[in-house]
Amino acid sequence: MEKRATFGSWWIGIAFAVPQVILIFTFFYWPAGEAIYWSLTLQQPWGGGNIWVGLDNFRQILDDPIYWASVLRSVVFAVASTGLAMGGALILAVFVDRECTGSRLYRVVLIWPYGIAAPALGLAFRFLMAPEAGFLAFLNQIAPGLWDPGLNGTDAMIEIIVAFSWKYVGYDFIFFLSALQAIPRAQIEAAALDGAGWLRRLRDIQLPLLTPTVFFLLVIDLTESFQDSFGIVDIMTAGGPARATELMVYKIYFDGFRGFDYSGAAAQSIILMVLIMLLTVLQFRFIERRVHYK
Amino acid sequence: MAEISLRHVAKSYGRTPVVHAIDLEVAAGEFIVILGPSGCGKSTLLRMIAGLEAITAGEIAIGGRVVNDLEPRERGCAMVFQNYALYPHMTVADNIGYALKVAGVAKAERLARIEKVADALGLRDLLGRRPAQLSGGQRQRVAMGRAMIREPAVFLFDEPLSNLDAELRVRMRVEIRKLHDRLGATSIFVTHDQVEAMTLADRIVVLHGGRVEQIGTPYAIYHQPASHFVAGFIGSPAMNRLDGRVGPAATVVFADGTTIAVPDLDLPEGQAVTLGIRPEDLRVGSEAPEDGIRHRLAIDFVEHLGPAALVHGRFAGHDFVASVPRHIAFTVVEGLTFTMPVETMHLFDSTTGRRIGIDAARE
Ligand SMILES: Nc1ncnc2c1ncn2[C@@H]1O[C@H](COP(=O)(O)OP(=O)(O)OP(=O)(O)O)[C@@H](O)[C@H]1O
Ligand SMILES: [Mg+2]
Fold first, then answer.
1. Domain of A270: which CATH number?
2. Tell me, what's the pLDDT at B190?
3. How many other C-beta atoms are found inside a 10 Å radius of the C-beta of residue A112?
4. What residues have their beta carbon closer than 5 A to ion ligand 2?
5. B130 touching chain A per CB within 8 A
6. Which of residues 275-294 of A touch B (CB under 8 A)?
């Protein structure tokens, strides 16, 4: 039985779709097409003609060890920040789930970081993490020079990873908490009667039932860490020191708008786009075939 | 095997009391059924015994040991939940064997015991399946298996049969009672189905609004209901209850002027009482004795059940039901003649709802 709302004449449906189509076209397909075109040509920084070079730009990038270093950095960043965000969120969610008084408040409070614009977040963390006066300044009192993200690349990387995962802890928390609360109480009670203590119940009953959520958040967090990290990197480290925090997305901006290598930057953004599209496809495939036990 | 005692056990959620100071002594090996209407606190009481719900006041002892502050796993109870609460990500075998796994029983022994339980419940061929791949009755059996495998001292059942169809329900009822007798465990079984309660129980605890109305054998509960509520709740069709007042010379008088003699009635005149009599205790039609006090029931409608017919009508200003065996003839136009045998009458105080012992005086 077909019970969908249908439109009387074909053009009404199209008329409704037009604004959306125009938006998508203007802000996605057009620039994306332009980027593909640029990535296949040599673009003059000051305008005036361009030369078709085929896949030369891609070859050049993929031969460049500096590019591969930024890929590696992005992967480290993605894995570390996703792990940190999900781990932290899971721990918080488990505790809130166990003792639910005020859990509404936690939910509201913990979603806020997700709503903060990355540059504002970056700025706040830059102050918090400042080596001379921030939270970690005491480290330098114990051993001078121990914490200095301005000079030490590892410190800088830690800094942006912490800032980024702070933003996603709240987001992941919401999903984990609702997934935990969706597990029927009786199942957990049955396990308690079967003799399992709370850690054991967590391991045997709750975590297995969370796998769909874990997988979902894994894909979301990884995807976001590739694209949403720009603002934090730009404000906190600007890719430094000595490229130590130059992630893929930041390198595109830097090469393009600071190095005026439009073609190289375009090729890089195509690569990043393909990567994110792959992650998204994975996510959709997964959502369709979601691990259901029912 | 373990005895259970509840002493003044009470529970409130915030300021709302849901269970009021309950006292109950369950002997080792006894089968107790907690019976009551929806929302009367049956599950809450059971969950307090299991340790899933903290108690607000009082004391619970299992096997002579006060368990108030013990975790559920330290109390030695196994429970079958109403919706079974099987672990959806585990196979039937893993579901049944989970308690043994947690207890650290070696794998070989675990498998042997799982198979033994599965055989007893006819689950042998289903051990590799997930709960989602089972029928309701099969799930129910898995839930039973999960409780059985631990050979617990105490079995708790929270309406385990309410999701099954009528036929399966009767079969599982018998199975549960057999299981209880075989294992010699102490069982507490919660239900709102009086037939289940009557057939399973050694003793029934009738709960109403978080209070115990009566504790007794099915026979006592049926034949000597301790209160107006129990009288109406046990028995189908329900007992006829007629509100009236004590009249002169051992009678009860009703608003429409009907007077019924209750020999040995010794109460102040004018006291509000409720006279109760079961539809099947009436002597009707040709079986109504000639020398008795004969009444007439004006018939509104008749339900034919097969072995008997339920005749609905008005008597003494109340709706009234009589059960008429199928060999007794009657017509709707003429109405039904009946007598009320004195020994089957029940009398309750209308204000407190408690039973007044006319039969105690007779015995
Ligand atoms: N967490 C809770 N907070 C507040 N009130 C509750 C809570 N749980 C139960 N109650 C109340 O306690 C009373 C008893 O509930 P309980 O679940 O024991 O009823 P029950 O006799 O098992 O009913 P049913 O036959 O419907 O299962 C109900 O009135 C219910 O509303
Ligand atoms: Mg209940």
1. 1.10.3720.10
2. 95
3. 10
4. B 43
5. yes
6. 293-294
Nearest C-alpha in A relative to B94: A204
Specify if A10 maps to a domain. no
Task: Look at residue A282 and tell me if it is in a domain.
Answer: yes
Residue A205 lies in a domain: yes
ipTM score over 0.90, yes or no: no
Residue A37 domain-assigned (yes or no): no
- pLDDT tier for residue B363 given thresholds of 50, 70 and 90: very low
How many domains is chain A built from? 1
Which residue range is the domain that position A238 belongs to? 64-290
SS3 B85: coil
What does DSSP say about strands B4-13 and B57-62: parallel, antiparallel, or unpaired? antiparallel
How confident is the model over A150-206, as pLDDT tens digits? 777 788 888 889 888 888 888 898 899 889 888 888 899 999 999 888 889 999 999
Q: Is the dihedral of CA A215, A219, A220, A224 positive or negative?
A: positive
A193-249 pLDDT, tens per residue? 998 888 899 999 999 888 888 888 888 888 888 888 888 888 888 777 877 788 888
Going from the C-alpha of B4 to that of each of A57, B7, B155, B178, B199, the distances in angstroms are 81, 10, 11, 21, 22
- Tell me which of B43, B161, B188, B193 to substitute to probe ligand 1's pocket, judged by most ligand atoms within 8 Å of the beta carbon: B43
